[in-house]
Amino acid sequence: MTSLLDGYRIGELRLPNRVVMAPMTRARATADGLATPSMATYYARRATAGLIVSEGVAPNHQGQSNPRTPGLRTEAEVASWRPVTAAVHANGGRIFAQLMHGGRVGHVSVAGHRPVAPSAVTLPADVFTPDGMRPASAPRALATAEVAVEAAAYGAAARRAVDAGFDGVELHGANGYLIQQFLSSNANLRTDRYGGTVAGRLRFAVEAVEACVDAIGAARVGIRLSPGGRVWDMVEDDAPGLYAALFEALAPLGLAYVHLLAPEGDDELLPALRKAWPGTLIVNPGGQIGPRETDLAAGERWLAAGADLIGFGRAFLANPDLVERFRTGAPLRPTPDRASWYSGGDAGYLDHPGPQH
């Protein structure tokens, strides 16, 4: 029987186990998007994971969603990431950068301009700003020619990620951000080639992935998706059909993996998608942002159900040594208080030492 502690191979990367540290925004970058020495310590302490996927990183200035999140837009940002990736590699780890374009999930005070989106449909929710939670700004609908530019931005950021020392990139196509906005039925009201039909709604996702594949090779590219997910007011008509069509379009590219968040209350969708996806599948059993935290038992269940790797998010916050705790059966430290997740500074961030080397 396959175990979380068994090795696995993604492209040229040999993973010592099947535990993936899932991407989690921690808002510890500088105000101008630079990675910091504290971030190097944070990720290096978790390098025993089979694979680390970084927090969401803005691929361009249009894509900035939250304050104090890092970017891969400039040479200064690339240089700031090199000590982070070097620290992970020095501790024997592997790390992908998650490319996260916020789309309509944003505010003018964060990026200095109106957010862009598939359509001018305002997110009916409060978002993070430097002054606390405020109603999301009304987005500007991208012109047809601009959509291709935004897709190409993922490829340019992928090149910069590799230059910064990352082993690959994961496109953030989940949780209501730009890629899922194009996939959705309520945020994408377009009638051009990027909307309307299923083929139109998935076109942006495919073009963004193709841009990354062209830039750094398919073996270094993954994508995260949340089929049927409703975070940030998403609606997807016929999610099974939509994602089956997306998988059919992505399969010939030979990606490193697809990373799925387990759907809430739908025990049939994810197994069906496992059958539809011919490559490596990462499953995050925690599902959408909510009360569930993945543990060893949940991970082993999904491995038995056909997943190849298991994503763990909040369990890594207080347990940098999560893999060793799984190996020895040691109890997990409880998840830190939510107030510390995005609070800035080292408190609630570097409080727990990692494995001893």
UniProtKB/TrEMBL annotation:
This is Alkene reductase. One of its GO terms (molecular function) is oxidoreductase activity. CDD domains: OYE_like_FMN. It comes from the Bacteria. Transmembrane segments: none annotated. InterPro entries: Aldolase_TIM (IPR013785), OxRdtase_FMN_N (IPR001155), Oye-like (IPR045247). It comes from Streptomyces hainanensis. Residues 9-331 form the NADH:flavin oxidoreductase/NADH oxidase N-terminal domain.
